[in-house]
């Protein structure tokens, strides 16, 4: 009888704990989305000034709302796979440094077949993979990672009208009607801002900063 009572009281506690953690992760996802929007827009304003022609504002198209869900799902799946599983396994087995490099390399190789890929995009996605890995190592939040990942991609495609890692499905009806006119090494060209050397440098510095923060907090 006591065992039955114990199970009946344990179930609501487990559910309550799960809902509490889910709420916290969703809040972190919101923070991450805001950071992703600000990070991309900040880099874009610096890089694209004089290299991006803005022809007007097209308004909110239904495809922008549909893109929210599909881009969020893609970001969530990549974070679960590359950070939640691959990075975590490598870190447990061989430590932080191997996990950062290994998960970053795998992340970049997966994107190598994307349209418009190049050496610059390979390096850019490698650095991005290391950044997301060190972000996860520092805060241990798939919600924060997913939100930032989604915020960057959604801002790039649905708002600025630029390719998202080579894909243009989310740039057909963006908020801003734009066209690139600068050199690909600066703008990222047909692959998107991930292939910009300015983005590579910026994300690289952020990665180093987070890595040093982890090392000093040990």
UniProtKB/TrEMBL annotation:
What is the name of this protein? CAAX prenyl protease 2/Lysostaphin resistance protein A-like domain-containing protein
Transmembrane helix as a keyword of this entry, yes or no, is: yes
Superkingdom of this protein's organism: Bacteria
The keyword Transferase is assigned to this record? no
The UniProt keywords, alphabetically, are: Membrane, Transmembrane, Transmembrane helix
CAAX prenyl protease 2/Lysostaphin resistance protein A-like domain: which residues? Answer: 64-154
What is the originating organism of this protein?
A: Deinococcus roseus
Q: Which residues cross the membrane?
A: 29-54, 60-82, 94-113, 119-139, 151-170, 190-211
Q: Which InterPro entries match?
A: Rce1/LyrA-like_dom
Q: Which Pfam families match?
A: Rce1-like
């Amino acid at each position: 009888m006591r065992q039955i009572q114990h199970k009946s009281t344990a179930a609501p506690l487990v559910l309550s704990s799960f809902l509490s953690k889910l709420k916290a992760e969703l809040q972190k996802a919101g923070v991450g989305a805001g950071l992703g929007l600000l990070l991309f827009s900040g880099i874009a304003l610096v890089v694209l000034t004089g290299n991006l022609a803005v022809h007007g504002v097209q308004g909110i198209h239904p495809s922008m709302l549909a893109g929210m869900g599909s881009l969020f799902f893609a970001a969530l799946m990549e974070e679960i796979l590359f950070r939640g599983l691959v990075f975590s396994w490598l870190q447990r087995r061989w430590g932080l440094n191997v996990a950062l490099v290994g998960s970053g390399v795998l992340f970049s190789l997966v994107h190598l077949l994307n349209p418009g890929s190049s050496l610059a995009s390979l390096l850019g996605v490698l650095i991005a993979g290391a950044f997301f890995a060190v972000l996860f190592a520092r805060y241990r939040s798939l919600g924060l990672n997913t939100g930032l990942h989604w915020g960057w991609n959604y801002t790039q495609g649905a708002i600025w009208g630029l390719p998202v890692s080579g894909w243009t499905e989310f740039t057909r009806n963006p908020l801003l009607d734009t066209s690139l006119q600068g050199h690909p090494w600066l703008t990222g060209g047909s692959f998107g801002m991930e292939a910009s050397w300015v983005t590579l440098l910026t994300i690289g510095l952020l990665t180093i900063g987070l890595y040093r923060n982890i090392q000093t907090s040990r």
